[in-house]
Amino acid sequence: MDLKTEYMGLHLRSPLVASASPISEKIDNIKRLEAAGASAVVLYSLFEEQLKMESLALHHHTTFGTDSFAEALSYFPEPKEYHVDSRGYLRLIEEAKEAVKIPVIASLNGVHPGSWAKFATQMANAGADAIELNIYNIPTDPDQSSADVENSYVEIVQAVKSAVLIPVAVKLSPFFTNMAHMARKLDHGGANALVLFNRFYQPDIDLEALEVRPNVLLSTPQALRLPLRWIAILYGRIGAHLAATSGVHTAEDVVKLLLVGANVTMMASALLRNGIDHLRVVEDGLIQWMKDNEYESVAQMRGALSQMRCADPSAYERAQYVRAVTHYTAPIR
Amino acid sequence: MSKKTENFTTIDGNEAVAAVAFKLNEVIAIYPITPSSAMGEWADEWAAGGKPNLWGTVPQVIEMQSEGGAAGAVHGALQTGSLTTTFTASQGLLLMIPNMYKIAGELTSCVIHVAARSLAAQGLSIFGDHSDVMSTRGTGFAMLASGSVQEAHDFALISQAATLKARVPFIHFFDGFRTSHEINTIEMLTDDDLHALIDDNLIFAHRQRGLSPERPVIRGTAQNPDVYFQARETVNPFYDACPDIVQAAMDQFAAQTGRQYHLFDYYGAPDAERVIVIMGSGTETVQETVDYLNARGEKVGILKVRLYRPLDMRRFADALPATTKAIAVLDRTKEPGSSGEPLYLDCVTALYEEWRHGLIPAIIGGRYGLSSKEFTPAMVKAVFDNLAQPKPKRHFTIGIHDDVTHTSLDFDPNFSIEADNVVRAVFYGLGADGTVGANKNSIKIIGENTDNYAQGYFVYDSKKSGSMTVSHLRFGPNPIHAPYIVTQANFLACHQPMFLERYDMLADAIPGGVFLLNTPYDADKVWDTLPKTVQEQLIAKKMHFYVIDAYKVAKASGMAGRINTVMQVCFFAISGVLPREEAIAAIKESIVKTYGKKGEQIVEMNLKAIDDTLANLFEVPVPEKVNSALPMLPAMLETSPAFVQNVLGMMAARKGDSLPVSAMPIDGTYPSGTTQWEKRNLAQEIPVWDPQVCIQCGKCAMVCPHAVIRIKAYDGAVLENAPETFKSVAARDTEWQNLHYTIQVAPEDCTGCAICVDICPAKNKSALGFKAINMEAQPPLREQERENWDFFLSIPETPRNLIKISSIRQQQVQQPLFEFSGACSGCGETPYIKLVTQLFGDRTVVANATGCSSIYGGNLPTTPWSHNAEGRGPAWSNSLFEDNAEFGLGMRISLDKQNEYARELVKRLETEIGTELVEALLTANQRDEAGIYEQRERVAILKNKLADSNTPDARRLIDVADALVKRDVWIIGGDGWAYDIGFGGLDHVLATGRNVNILVLDTEVYSNTGGQASKSTPRSAVAKFAAGGKRAGKKDLGLIAMSYGNVYVARVAMGAKDEQTLRAFIEAEAYEGPSLIIAYSHCIAHGINMATAMKNQKAAVDTGQWLLYRYHPERAAQHENPLTLDSRPPKVPLKEYLRMENRFKMLELSQPDVSAVLFEEAQQDVNLRWAMYEYLASRDYSQGGNGKGSH
């Protein structure tokens, strides 16, 4: 069975890629991902904002209360160095590259185009095989237009592309007025792949404390529908490769996404929930499905049910919504 | 002047000494004590960073449990042949004395570096004088005195070179703070210099004298009357040879470095008639003054004493000019009852024995500079003037006004010898605004980037919150020898506008000088905001006046409250010390160097602040006329008692130096409750109560570190005269049905920590971001709330018999008798102390170990321990650091003895007193408030009955009758005391079974001295002396105490379970045996957000890092397990707590690999501890005995 797939010029043994998650914080886990069959690993995201926060907190706590009282002019010793910058992350890239043979994709969340480019360069120099730009912000300024927001994405891609030679993927959210247009803009901006979609961690309400709490929810299989639709629509229409992420839990999910046109399918929640070895189960299931359905290769599957190639292209568009509702047959209580 | 070379650097005395000592030793035993702690900190940091000594190996640095322990370790290391040193001061040096006799008696080469400091007598002082080193004169240690940062650096080497050759151990001392903390430009010794002075062969000889099983010997024998004396005399030749050896080392040093020293350096007119003999930093002042006076035709000189022991009397006498007629010997110490202070007596003896020029000059002695009292050229002149008198005053003092025994010399405070080519700058800042840090940085920039020499000295507040700092800087083309503060400033900066109303700072500015003010007002508006005296002086002195809104600039750069960089740029821009562009480039470079490792963000915001500053700096033309009527604020409320206003008020106004001797209490006794008179108005925001939302739980008052949130339940009739804005609601407690209830904030005493808001559990149901208590800006509320506060105070306290103390909501109406302390804003210790005073304050005597609690509890001018309307309250004292448990036990024994004696007398006088009263007095149950109240009533009746009786026993009984009323002894201190230096005593006191209550305020570090590790410091925490992260686990003090079986032990954390805390305090006090409460006290030294610090306490408990329990011996007697675990099994991974605190987090950020291991080990600690305690708490006691039954 030929599972080989190509993703942004990276030749992968299968379409099963480990998505950015805390799993990749440890080298041992990255080794286990490779052993379980991951064809590439996207490292957890380097958040520039977080680096800054850590740096500010460190500065605050090491200066707070100092030079105020004669007996205690400071409260902490002064270490020679701190790892408040990207060094820890870059070391992880280096160590991962030494530890595994599969491609290592670094993930980045920067603050402004200049810093995106700076960190991307550092990542490339550290040996990353590709970079995934985890563009993750929630525009709340009423004076900022949608066009401004969209352009800022493109600027980031252009800045990074002009700084590094390795492939660059863009992971983005589905919340654009016209996703197809946005995808094309990014494609023209130089993105080698689009990773669909990012999941925002939505706030929740703690009813006991009556407070707003950030709440990390793992994805559910239902989340799959959104990337599935957009990959189906985008397949064949843009040059950039397509990676599916969000809601990829089972072999069936992988099959569906490959059929609509994904180059790779990425998993995080499923591995966090079921363990790293779940990758093997998915791969076995994929092979079994292919056998059962007489597919010989992943390439043969890819895009077969995309909007371009499926029997009913309108199924991916708004009409489908109407039909789904009118055909809803569950008993109404 | 020698041209500065690249070896010049700008550092303080402690670093200058530590740099040499670290290089020249193999073993360094350390223990924190101000002002020497920094030497140990440097050594620990360098060792943790792998810095090698002169011979390429990293010294072993070991923290000990006390200076006594450090001296023992030093002795042992020396005895086995290692080059060994330690650093100490004051009481610490006293604790080393026993070992010093041994080390010297055994002729062991060693140097102890001492930042000389006052000894605690009528009061403790952390500041500098020679009382400590003078107390070691008998030990046999040689004593070498340095007088400046450069000399301290140099003599650290000379003493080490000399001790190896002489075999006489050395104390190398320099003045605490004045030299240890002064930053000055010095020429650093190179490794070549060190090698040139230190002879390897002498090290080998030292090593060979060490104990070794390869060549066994016995040293440290017990000797009998037949030989001890002779054996004691064997060392004489070594002492005889020592001065020559030191001089030879000094000569060799001079050949190597060009800096020549002598055992006694005479300086001045070769034909001087009047000479001052002095040692330490005062030598610098005298030398400069001698130059000044001689240039004006006088013939005076100074003899600087370098090697004080062994005293080479011949050299001493010969160093003086033959023309000398009169000598004033200045001692920086006091020996009450002596025939004179030691240096004076030595001078008398030396000249008596060795003067070779005819008639011995007149010699007089005087005291100066105790506790870093300023010693200025004006005082030097006064001493020379005194010498010129036909009958000079003997045994004089200089620098104070002694109107009691009239020892003091008058001096002219306006006399100044400051050179014109020296820039003298004074900066008034707030601790939190970074002023001192910026000035230290400026000194470095100037000292290291220009041909100028630089000096900095910093004066700090005695309060830990809202503290003012005053920086004194000098810059000039010649080395600066001026170890006294700047009083003739040509640049004066006020970084906090509110100081203008409190301190007359412009008095120190010279005419034509510059005044820089940070102010929120625009340049064209600021004049009208200035107090009258400020306007007057600006005009009279024709000063140049500049303003900047530094907070605005800092905020725009993301720097929030730190205006350091902004004000630093202003200083350089205005002062012209450096060309502006050059200065700014240098500041930028230093920003990158200083902050680079903390991340680009920090660098960037500082650089932005620099760039934005100049555009916001304006010169304000000084008008010709004063238009302000704004007066200076009084330091104390005008309603305060005379002593508070006239004495404490002067101290608070920074005018304490002018108080005469007669103003001071003779025995160190001060009135209690004086913080109430000093309204510091520190808070930008204060809590405001919302009675409609409030559930009246009392938690806000309980956690308030400064006792500024008060609660009363009272009869509503009093509200008739209430101010309009006074808030009152019906009390919700069912037992207080007819009472009114108010939570009132003391607006001018609050520090604005906001910990009350964080703890408040009641939320506004319609706006959940608001609680029953919310922070609001203080200035608009100040007047209104001041009036409300005063009214609140006038409401009678809720009668104590109406208060159920086991319920927090009721208990918290008890009046705190510990209020408005100088502790850090948000302090984690003070809520526990306050709780003790609320519950038991009116019957308590407190023994307080030295440390944070003794400083915020007892540092002048004002102190927080207070009293109630009846005049009763905690009586408080501090003995030492190491002896606090014993001190408290002594109180207990004493009070018990008085009680016993009183009971005997009551029995003896039964016929006179009446059987009924006798019976009632002797069998009184005083276990609760009512019982104590009744006993007080009985004692009053008893005294009344005996008042007319003149029998000796009746008078004796009246004298001790109060002892019939219950007395609590609370022994309070931090973990440095309880776990380390005072542990032996604490252990002993627990073992006595006596009824004392011990409260350990466990911050898990030596907080007061700046966060050094103690044995309470948990594994993986970064602390000073554990710079690489603490490798060992925390000592389990509670478990040790439990092993006695008859000790009540509780571990509490108010922020995790306040009810358990309250219960523990009540049980501990009620238990008639020893009790030990170990209280988790969050601390600024943890690197946490102090406003939400109670959450850290909760996290510590939730993760199992801090167990809550109570061990009650009485339960065992009732066949129950004495141990009750009050916390639940750990439910959260420890890391979640560790990452909340910088002390742990910074290990992750600085040494991720080490932290990964230590964090894991710390989790194991948690798991094992829980398992053990769970087992202990579940043992079956139903069969009696000690829980041996299985379960």
Protein architecture, described:
The complex is a heterodimer of chains A (333) and B (1191). Chain A contains twelve helices and twelve strands. Chain A is α/β, with parallel strands linked by helices. Chain A has a single domain, classed as TIM Barrel (Alpha-Beta Barrel). In chain A, helix 5 links the parallel strand 6 and strand 7. In chain A, helix 7 (225-234) packs parallel to helix 8 and helix 8 packs across helix 10. The termini of chain B are far apart. The mean pLDDT of chain B is 96. At the A-B interface, helix 2 of A face helix 2, helix 15, helix 20 and helix 40 of B.
Q: Could you state the CATH homologous superfamily of the largest domain in chain B?
A: Thiamin diphosphate (ThDP)-binding fold, Pyr/PP domains
Number of helices of chain B: 41
Radius of gyration of chain A: 22 Å
Give the second-level CATH assignment, the architecture of the largest domain in chain B. Answer: 3-Layer(aba) Sandwich
Principal-axes shape call of chain A: globular
How would you describe the oligomerization state of the chains in this entry?
heterodimer
How many structurally independent domains of chain B? 6
Query: What's the number of domains of chain A?
Result: 1
Series of secondary-structure elements of chain A, N-terminal to C-terminal = EEEHEHHEHEHEHEEEHEHEHHHH
Characterize the main sheet of chain B.
Answer: 9 strands, mixed
Mean pLDDT of chain B: 96
Helix percentage range of chain B? 25-40%
Q: What is the CA-atom radius of gyration of chain B, in angstroms?
A: 32 Å
Q: What is the tally of beta strands of chain B?
A: 38
How many distinct beta strands of chain A?
A: 12
What top-tier CATH class of the largest domain in chain B fits best? Alpha Beta
Q: Number of helical segments of chain A?
A: 12
What percentage of amino acids of chain B are in beta strands? 15-25%
Main sheet attributes: strand count, strand direction, barrel closure of chain A: 8 strands, parallel, barrel
